[in-house]
Specification:
The complex is a heterodimer. By secondary structure, chain A is α+β, with helices and mostly antiparallel strands. Chain A contains 5 helices and 12 strands. In chain A, strands 1, 2, 3, 4, 5 and 6 form a 6-stranded mixed β-sheet that branches. Chain B is an alpha+beta fold. Chain B has one domain: Ribosomal Protein S5, domain 2, CATH 3.30.230.70. Chain B is globular and about 55 Å long. The model of chain B has no long low-confidence stretch (mean pLDDT 94). Classes of the chains: A alpha+beta, B alpha+beta. The interface between A and B is large, with 38 and 38 residues.
Chain lengths: 263, 246
């Protein structure tokens, strides 16, 4: 109990110190308010997957892997393949992550990334059709390996990078021939997400875990070159004008992130 | 979101159910329908039938979660297995319901004066009995009324509606088909006085300009919904419990 009270008091002090700093224009790690931490992407680290990528933003590390399976299509979309995303916040990634079934945070992350990829129409789901009653299921598994803030953007980066490096399996007699490929999955758009938080009256892009602990509002906006393809407000509230400003930032940061993905 | 253009959702400016682009479905709100709860509300919104009960402030369980500074807000959104025209659904929490419980809770954490009730929790239970698109926004609208009925002090009221795009038109209050076959869906909640955005999700493809127009329409629609909420609350306290018809 004493340590809990201590933590609560510390939290208040952290917020006050941080707010003062931000009001002077300084961010704890010296970044500009709209600057991402250094980003690294590694293509296809997992040889057993049909496509994979590792994305790192600062110390936040995420692995995404793609596997294909033959599945039955959804009854209302008989010619479309299925896109199925799952996310794991591995307990090794952060002391706050617990083993067990996915909690609301990992479900929210998976569903936000899912909406960004699906809505962008990057994947032509009709191209995953095999024959009547059989389509390819495209399974994306997102593993958060280290959570040092803003896992959502790292997860979107890893997922899009994995899809950019995904090979289409060879199909024979309605079944996948494992280990043999015909060509690469084609993407029609490059979706990326941009997360911003508010502390006091200041908005910060790509929050660290420390900043997330004292944030008052969080918003994630996913974009393609031309459109917003997903939004998810987390904690807190914002005004319409703050939203429009954040959309501008998301497009600007989005084109930077897309450049990194296509390198 | 397929953005399936082959599905005609709008003909001559009229939608499949005859509504204009910014017209709401019929909304009926009843207050105090569950006497055993501290506060409750029932909402019928088009083909949605949703019941909401509030319990608390009451002792926080488990106790170690309690905060000496504020009440914890907890929310459980749940869809009944018989709520859709399709097959019998699964009971128990799904990934979708877990996410919706979270975003609904995050609406009310901004509104409730939680600092008034340290060491307690306030439970918001939302059960969707029948669904026809837009259940999360109808749930928020009903929960706001139930919280008022429970006497829980809030900074202001909240009203929610879904806006989106179908057949290249921006529309308000998407029905099930418009949700399934439209080009975009954006559920929004506005606070009644300060017009703060308390819920914002979006899928599908929209430009910034389209988002601006959609939000404007959402703000106008939530003002109308707010009047209905106020009327329902006033009616309850003037006339008392009415005959509750599901």
């Amino acid at each position: 109990m004493v340590s809990e009270m201590m933590e609560i008091v510390m939290q208040k002090m952290r917020r006050e110190v941080m707010e003062d700093m931000l009001n002077r224009g300084d961010r704890l790690d010296g970044r500009a308010f709209d600057e991402y931490r250094p980003i690294k992407i590694q293509k296809n680290p997992i040889a057993t997957a049909d496509g994979s990528a590792y994305a790192r933003i600062g110390n936040t590390q995420v692995l995404a892997a793609v596997k294909f399976d033959v599945v039955a299509p959804f009854p209302d979309r008989p010619t479309e393949g299925a896109l199925i995303m799952n996310a794991e916040h591995l307990p090794l990634a952060n002391p706050a992550f617990e083993a067990g079934p996915p909690d609301e945070n990992s479900i929210e992350m998976a569903r936000t990334v899912d909406r960004a990829i699906r809505s962008s129409e990057a994947i032509d789901l009709n191209s995953l059709f095999i024959e009547e009653g059989k389509v390819l299921g495209l399974f994306v598994d997102i593993y958060v390996l280290d959570h040092a803030g803003n896992y959502t953007d790292a997860a979107t980066l890893a997922t899009t990078a994995a899809l950019l490096n995904t090979r289409m399996p060879k199909i024979e007699n309605g079944a996948i021939v494992r280990g043999e490929y015909k060509d690469y999955l084609k993407l029609r758009a490059i979706p990326v997400s941009c997360t911003s938080i508010r502390i006091g009256k200041n908005w910060l892009v790509d929050p660290t875990e420390y900043e997330e602990k004292i944030m008052e509002t969080r918003i994630t906006i996913a974009t393609t070159d031309t459109h917003v393809c997903a939004m998810q407000k987390g904690k807190g509230w914002l005004t319409k004008d703050e939203l429009f400003d954040n959309i501008d930032v998301a497009f600007k940061k989005g084109s930077e992130l897309r450049k990194i993905l296509l390198q | 979101m397929s953005g399936n253009q082959s599905v005609k959702l709008i003909v001559d400016g009229k939608r499949l159910d005859g509504r204009t682009l910014n017209e709401l479905r019929k909304i009926r709100i009843e207050v105090g329908v569950i006497p055993e709860a501290d506060g409750s509300a029932y909402i019928e919104w088009g083909g949605n039938k949703i019941i909401c009960g509030v319990h608390g402030p009451r002792e926080c369980i488990p106790r170690h979660e309690a905060s000496p500074f504020r009440a914890l807000v907890k929310c459980r959104y749940s869809m009944s297995p018989f709520a859709s025209l399709e097959e019998h659904g699964k009971s128990g929490p799904s990934r979708r319901s877990t996410e919706l419980s979270k975003v609904i809770r995050e609406v009310f954490e901004n509104l409730i004066l939680t600092e008034e009730f340290p060491n307690t929790q306030i439970d918001i239970y939302v059960d969707v009995l029948q669904a026809e698109g837009g259940t999360r926004t109808a749930s928020i609208t009903a929960a706001a009324v139930a919280l008022v009925n429970a006497g829980i002090p809030m900074r202001e009221l909240v009203s929610a509606v879904s806006v989106g795009k179908a057949n290249d038109e921006i529309i308000v209050d998407l029905g099930k088909l418009e949700d399934n076959f439209g080009q975009s869906d954006m559920p929004v909640a506005f606070s009644s006085r300060d017009k703060k955005i308390l819920l914002l999700q979006m899928d599908g493809l929209l430009t910034k300009d389209e988002i601006k127009r959609a939000l404007q329409m959402a703000e106008e629609a939530t003002t109308k919904i707010g009047e209905l909420q106020r009327k329902a609350i006033t009616k309850f306290y003037e006339e008392g419990e009415g005959e509750f018809v599901l």
